[in-house]
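Researcher: Next entry in the queue.
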Amino acid sequence: MITTTTKKLTLEKFLELPETKPASEFVDGKIEQKPMPQGENSRIQIKLCTAINQVTESAKMAYAFPELRCTFGGRSIVPDVVVFEWEKIPRTEKGRIANRFQTYPDWSIEILSPQQSYLKVLDNLLFCSQEGTKLGWLIHPEEEFILVVFPEQKIKLFKDNDLLPVLNNIDLQLTVQDIFDWLCF
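Model: Structure for this entry, 185 residues:
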């Protein structure tokens, strides 16, 4: 992860900068570029978005977005997957989806990359929880576990055939093993 420290950089100034690939985040006055997603990260990301949206989109319950910038609480972050409950998805006056999401997600999912700092990713999930996010997942492909952040920053470790918690009213049953089985072709 590349970190750039710039004195007097504000969130507003950061948001005026051109987007980077991979995405950069603004955390505690610093610009931090995320590592480029690799195979495991990409596979889990697309499979999760697809699994969630197959259950939620037609019922207009929620929608999962890959790598969507969310700006709130003085930070601008780009989790690997965010899920917004349907009524909370920002819209334009015409009813279209907004380009800027200036609120916290209802569910934030991070997939740890080999070069990523575990502590920085967990810090983002805890920050989301503090700001109102209902559920956070930190998926650790190398160790094959998922750390779940609940409201009030309660944390629980899930592994093997543990059934993973999802947002209320979403009829999706996934185990930790289901997630990591997606990595096998």
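Model: The two ends are 29 Å apart (CA to CA).
Researcher: Noted, moving on.
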